[in-house]
Amino acid sequence: MGTVAHRPRAWLEWAETEEGELVVRIGGELDLDSVPGVDPAVDGLIARHNGRHVTVDLGELSFFDSSGVTVLIRIANGSGSMRIRHANPAVRRVIEVLGLASWLGLESD
Predict the structure, then answer these.
(1) Kind of pairing, strands 10-16 and 22-30?
(2) I need a surface site. Which of 7, 25, 68, 85 has the fewest CB within 10 A?
(3) Mean pLDDT split into 10-residue runs, the chain, 109 residues
(4) What CATH number does the domain containing 91 carry?
(5) Given this model, what pLDDT does residue 4 score?
(6) Are 98 and 68 in contact (CB under 8 A)?
(7) pTM of the full predicted structure?
């Protein structure tokens, strides 16, 4: 019988493209319970790339609440500029209802 690897409820990773673009990917369910698990990655991102333009890809983020919004705000505050792409309708709705779409650079997909 095989084993099932534990996958965190939420995850965050980043990489620099060949063109020098910093892309942050966030996936899973980003809420009050899971945010502490991604906080170290956010801290590392801000420490290493403070002031740079960041593209945040939310294509694999299935759910987030106000705690998840704070992660996006922290990334925005630590970057020179930011844009968000591939947000699903539920995630997009939270960002828009809070009036943060323009400030966070939410793209229409």
Answers:
(1) antiparallel
(2) 7
(3) 61 91 94 94 91 95 94 95 96 96 92
(4) 3.30.750.24
(5) 47
(6) no
(7) 0.89
Cβ–Cβ < 8 Å for 40, 11: no
Alpha carbons 42 and 19: distance in angstroms, whole number: 22
Domains: count for the chain:
1
Identify whether 12 is part of a domain: no
Distance CA 12, CA 70 (A): 14
Sorted by sequence, the CB contacts under 8 Å of residue 44 that are 6+ apart come out as: none
Q: Cα-atom radius of gyration of the chain, to the nearest Å?
A: 14
Domain residues for the domain of 96 are 22-104
Per-residue pLDDT at 82: 95
